[in-house]
Structure prediction request, 575 residues.
Amino acid sequence: MFETRRLRSRIGLQILLTVLVVPFVFPLYAMVQGSLEGLGWGNYATVLSLPVLPKFFINSALISAAVIVIVMFCTMTAAFGFSKLHIRFKEVYFWLLLICLTLPGVVLIAPLFATVTRVGAYNTLWAVIIPVAALQIPFTTLLARNFVDGIPSELIEAARVDGASIVRVFWDILLPLSRPIMAAVLVLVFINSWNEFLLALLFLQTPDQQTITLVPSFFVGQYNNDQTKVLAAAVLTGLPVVIAYVFLQRFFERGLAAGALK
Amino acid sequence: MTTSATTNAAGVATERSSRRRGGLARPTGIPWILPALVVSVGVLYYCIGYTGYLSTLKWDGASPLQLQVGLENYARMFRDPIFWRALGNTALFYVVTFAVQVALGIVLACLLHSRLYLKTLYKVLIFVPVVLAPATTAPVFRQIYAPTGTLNTVLEGIGLGGLAQPWFSNGTFALFIIISVQIWQSTGVVFILYFAAIGQISPEVIEAARIDGAGDIRIITSIIWPSVRGTTIAIAILSAIGSLKTFDIPFLITSGGPTYATEFLGTRIYRISVQYSDVGLGAAFSIVLLLLAIGTAVLIQVGSRTREEKAGV
Prediction:
């Protein structure tokens, strides 16, 4: 893109890039450095020795897993239906979904709170799982539909002519061809549900039900605002998503870009 | 497109095997989209309807006493000076984050399309803030700007101790800190979208411009900027909705303070519904926030279409 044939301009651009990227790294550096002040790795030992910590991790993992299963199932079936099957007033249904893209989670708190307490789901993981899944499906369906639109309909027709049922077409043709977008949906949904804060804050009240995003505030209370422990806890809670992202980076970027370029 | 696909299927079917004709002609897709509609549209529209109903009540969220007050909550909302303050904060937040992210995103995307070293590493570093929860990163920002925090220590270290101050006590600084955290957090998304869009511009066009003597800046303004217009519009919509949705960052870093300087509609709704237990008023805020989000998305979409038509003529 930019002129890089002369060594001088190439070095100049490399320096410019580095200068622009430093502000992105600095808070992360400050986070790790702050977590090692005072007791050094001892801060991590203190945080890890807390008996409730594994519960926070397990709860976040359970919520993420349940949300991923629900969202993946709804997204792939809907993408298939919207893209390849005959549905009367199809675009109306699609627009109903798209309008939900604009929905901020915070506008749901009053009705959700009333409903969750009425059905007895208060302080259970379901109170977070269902709304988080509902909020993600519009975007993942948009991404997946765009992707499935690119799969030639002839493939599906050919299988139908050979006598395959719709379910088999979905299972044996559509899903294998959709692996890239499924990977993108997987990472996206994992990150969003792992990072969910507001609904967990509202609906999960006891430490044995709480999630990883509530850990820093939990530690603020626990350690009387001892910043080093709070930062060590923050580093530990951030690690799983960073690892997930780094390993699945290619899928994630491709999926996001594929959805937005349309 | 799908209509033609199904008639195609039907056509092929009559030629090859007429006995399957009925099944092939119209495989209805309703059962396939039903799970998504039930989980997403069902839950969310139910909540929106419920919020609309709650917005006509005077209710503390717990007591059995619910009083019908009609549109009184909306009238109270428009009289609330903090409502207007929050809207103003949102507008400033939107304009600044959008402008900075677009500029940074395009420059970074162009740089990472050039022949430079360690490009994957840089990409990952730009994107890592996107995947981290504000709940995870908020403590470090509170630490950096705290009275005895990193920023003041650095300022004193380089002999500018006079500039050191409790940053969060100043409303303007607090708001710009919130804005800068948002930019830090979401420039990665903007960058990835531009990176993909610029990848679709054919290199010959850029080579040709370069041979004609265009410099780097000229190439950005005359070739890249017009080519990524669609992406810029998508980003304008995404960040408008994102600005209206802003909650986690101000809630966790400044709690909307000092004296409402970093209050946004989201934090206002939380404060009113949860801390003041005024569920009806909170619901009225929610409905207005929702209408603003949908309205802004439609407005930007329509606005960009009309400009396109004008450009076409």
Q: What stands out?
A: Residues 100 and 183 of chain B are 7 Å apart (CA to CA). The mean pLDDT of chain B is 84. The beta strands of chain B are 57-58, 67-68. Chain B touches chain A through 111 residues (CB under 8 Å).
